[in-house]
């Protein structure tokens, strides 16, 4: 089984699809399992619905390939499928915690998990092929925010060029990932921009969205994607924060940062921890409490 973190992103989905097809080419039966569904913007990568949320009846994996996931707890419910007798292969570009005694391929200097998979394909002397090239290109493109974040490196761009030569279409991938907004997501963005809160002379820009904001825009949770990225484009801003009410007194906090301040440093102390520029965590309580705690933590790092 090939699994990745809760709320999977482009690097998760693209890398998982490429890994599963690689395993199949090696005559291994591979199933992709994630707790959460493929976000709309990455569904073009999985037209046949290969990414599932449970194992098929009678399928008992002997190996779990865990991609782009810094800790098994980040698998959510999928962690329960990993019995002690299952070998866990960890492949990640975060500071991941591998299972003791099990194989791992970790490189925190790599731009993305996809970049590591390209290296692995070379090492195994397996063919790339246009399908895998497209999946891996999408992952490689999306993790550094469309080649904008600091993890955009000469190496990742040269891997991107290689994947384009192998048949990935950069224009199609960018258009699918960045230019497929729904009306409801635009309405939600407009509502969010109407609720801007500035702190620390604009170095922190915050928006909190309640259930009624989503309802009145006809928006779903996924429509909030990209709002926090928009906040951090303001000239003075170092930290963009989006607080979203979720059921059961949970507030989902999304953080984007730029400059010296690191989103994962802020998120780590609150139980998150992942990307240096884009991270998140879940807080208990109401929006006011979540806002205060987040601002308190951010002021330590500003
Ligand atoms: Mn990643």
Could you explain the architecture of this structure?
- The chain is of the alpha/beta class and 302 residues long.
- 35% of the residues lie in helices and 18% in strands.
- It is built from ten helices and eleven strands.
- The strands form two sheets. The protein has a six-stranded parallel sheet with strand order 3-2-1-4-5-6. A five-stranded mixed sheet has the order 7-8-9-10-11.
- β7 and β8 (204-209) form a beta hairpin.
- The radius of gyration is 19 Å and the shape is globular.
- Manganese (II) ion (MN) is lined by residues 11, 68, 93, 112-113, 143.
How do the helices and strands line up, and which of them pair or pack?
Blueprint lengths: L1 E3 L5 H16 L6 E2 L17 E2 L10 E5 L19 E6 L11 E3 L6 H12 L5 H13 L11 H12 L4 H9 L4 H11 L3 E3 L4 E6 L1 H7 L9 H5 L7 E8 L3 E8 L5 H6 L9 E7 L2 H15 L1
Parallel strand pairs: 1-2, 1-4, 2-3, 4-5, 5-6, 8-9
Antiparallel strand pairs: 7-8, 9-10, 10-11
Helix pairs in contact: 1-2, 1-3, 2-3, 3-4, 3-5
Bound molecules: manganese (II) ion.
């Amino acid at each position: 089984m090939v699994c990745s973190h809760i709320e999977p992103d482009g690097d998760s989905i693209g890398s998982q699809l490429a890994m599963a097809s690689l395993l199949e080419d090696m005559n291994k039966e591979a199933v992709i399992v994630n707790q959460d569904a493929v976000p709309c913007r990455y569904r073009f990568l999985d037209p046949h619905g290969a990414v599932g949320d449970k194992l098929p009846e009678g399928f008992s994996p002997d190996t779990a390939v865990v991609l782009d996931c810094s800790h098994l707890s980040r698998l959510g419910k999928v962690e329960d499928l990993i019995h002690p007798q299952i070998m866990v292969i960890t492949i990640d570009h975060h500071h991941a915690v591998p299972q003791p005694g099990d194989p791992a391929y970790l490189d925190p200097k790599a731009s993305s998990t996809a970049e590591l998979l390209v290296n692995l394909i070379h090492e195994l002397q397996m063919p790339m092929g246009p399908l895998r090239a497209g999946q891996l290109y999408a992952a490689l493109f999306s993790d550094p925010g469309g080649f904008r974040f600091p993890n955009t490196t000469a190496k990742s761009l040269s891997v991107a060029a290689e994947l384009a030569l192998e048949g990935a279409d950069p224009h199609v991938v960018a258009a699918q990932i960045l230019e497929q907004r729904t009306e409801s997501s635009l309405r939600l963005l407009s509502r969010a921009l109407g609720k801007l809160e500035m702190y620390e002379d604009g170095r922190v820009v915050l928006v909190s969205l309640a259930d009624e904001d989503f309802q009145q825009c006809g928006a779903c949770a996924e429509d909030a994607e990209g709002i926090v990225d928009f906040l951090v484009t303001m000239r003075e801003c170092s930290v963009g924060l989006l607080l979203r009410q979720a059921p059961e007194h949970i507030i989902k906090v999304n953080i984007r940062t730029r400059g010296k301040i690191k989103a994962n440093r802020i998120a780590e102390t609150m139980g998150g921890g992942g990307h240096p520029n884009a991270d998140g965590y879940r807080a208990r309580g109401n929006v006011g409490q979540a806002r205060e705690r987040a601002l308190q933590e951010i002021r330590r790092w500003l």
